[in-house]
Here is the input.
Amino acid sequence: MTQITEVAPDVFRITFFVEPFNLQFSQFLVRDEQPLLFHTGPRGFFSTVREAVATLIDPTALRWIGFSHVEADECGSLSEWQQTAHHSTAVCSMVGKLVSVDDCVAVRPAKGMVDGEVLETGKYRFRFLQTPHVPHCWEAGLLFEETHRTLFCSDLFHQGGNVEPVTQSDVVGRCRNVLEEYQKGPLANYLPYSHLTDSTLVRLSALDPKAVATMHGSVFVGDGRQALNDFATMLREVLGDERD
Here is the structure.
């Protein structure tokens, strides 16, 4: 069952829960003059996501398709979306465009963005942040919507379970539980911890987001600066020794 929740003005969380993984997968649709979808979901869920998008906009009107890095849940159905919305363009880092996306993911050349570049979709402005290896992959990047201060943070703040769409409660503790469990099995080192991690999270914290829109779990609404600082501390405690 797909759940649709407006988590900020004209920003909709489209979420399905995969019980065998005990995990939610969320896509975020921004309804604007040039609609933007952040995360496509895996290819196998394209029809489900498309049906949900159709309750909000005409899917063929989608203009921008953003994602952090090349991974099935981030951009697995990009080609299906671009075949549906014939004027849509993928939005990713310049690194992603050059090394992967244009060659083997996108139907049409992607818009490769450089750090600090702004994409305007009408009334909203999205600043692109280059974040290599945060959450993971060389080409990683995030979008920050400047009008309502929403950070589209991909896998950061990953939470397990079929949790509520929006929360003001602690999401860092939930994420700690997941990472500690993952470190015991085949999903260990899901989030890499490198010399870039702390400085990147400090930079994200300085944005002072009011909403932190994660792919897996509840959207956190509140003091995003503190949440990111707490998240950085937690990563050092859980993963820092793995680096040494």
Summary: The chain has a mean pLDDT of 96. Residues 224-243 form the longest helix (20 residues).
